[in-house]
């Protein structure tokens, strides 16, 4: 079995709000940093993305790849690489766990990356860790600060309005 990297973060929002942002691929370029373009190629019978093309620019790694998504219940999504120019493997998942009666969410992100060019395992794990940490920080910031994010509550929008 391939080695993977995993990390988690707690977000001050309900799991449905967090998953709403995760599932909104069209807006990834607004908050992920590395994703410059996202295009949903296929959806399931519930309208959730099953196949997504992503254009990635992460400095040394620039890639145009397609991922296949599998949705497990309302609180987990996993993906695997369909095709890529630079990557051999890009498998991952987000698993959401409700905390504090459902008002907070622990997000666990697991990722396995393998590139077509030779690279030491230690360097791959470091790259995975950087990708995960940036993704989790971006997700947290997006969910907690964007009242217009999918699934955001009216209370969040009202709280934002009071701040201005």
Describe the structure.
The chain has helices at 15-22, 28-31, 121-145, 154-163; strands at residues 5-11, 35-43, 49-58, 61-72, 76-83, 87-99, 104-115. It is an alpha+beta fold. Strand 5 and strand 6 form a beta hairpin. Residues 151-164 have low confidence and may be disordered.
Quick recap of the structure?
The protein has 164 residues and is α+β, with helices and mostly antiparallel strands. Helices cover 29% and strands 43% of the residues.
Brief descriptors of the model:
164 residues, alpha+beta, seven-stranded antiparallel β-sheet, 7 strands, 29% helix, disordered C terminus
Q: Give the spatial strand order of the biggest sheet.
A: 1-7-6-5-4-3-2
H and E order: EHHEEEEEEHH
Number of strands: 7
Q: How many helices in DSSP terms?
A: 4
Please report which band the strand proportion falls in: under 5%, 5-15%, 15-25%, 25-35%, 35-45% or over 45%: 35-45%
3D shape: globular
Distance between the termini: 51 Å
Give the secondary structure arrangement, pairings included.
Elements: E1 5-11, H1 15-22, H2 28-31, E2 35-43, E3 49-58, E4 61-72, E5 76-83, E6 87-99, E7 104-115, H3 121-145, H4 154-163
Antiparallel strand pairs: 1-7, 2-3, 3-4, 4-5, 5-6, 6-7
Helix pairs in contact: 1-3
């Amino acid at each position: 079995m391939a080695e993977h990297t995993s990390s988690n973060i707690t977000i001050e929002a309900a799991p449905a709000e967090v998953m709403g942002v995760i599932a909104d691929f069209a807006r990834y370029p607004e908050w992920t940093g590395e994703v410059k373009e996202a295009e949903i190629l296929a959806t399931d019978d519930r309208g959730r993305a099953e196949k997504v093309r992503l254009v990635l620019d992460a400095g040394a790694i620039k890639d145009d790849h397609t991922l296949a998504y599998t949705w497990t219940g309302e609180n987990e999504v996993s993906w695997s690489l369909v095709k890529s120019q630079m990557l051999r493997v890009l498998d991952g998942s987000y698993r959401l766990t409700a905390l504090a009666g459902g008002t907070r969410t622990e997000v666990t992100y697991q990722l396995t990356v393998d590139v077509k060019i030779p690279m030491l395992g230690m360097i791959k794990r470091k790259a995975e860790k950087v990708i995960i940490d940036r993704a989790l920080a971006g997700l947290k910031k997006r969910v907690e600060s964007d009242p217009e994010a999918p699934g955001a509550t009216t209370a969040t929008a009202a709280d934002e309005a009071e701040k201005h």
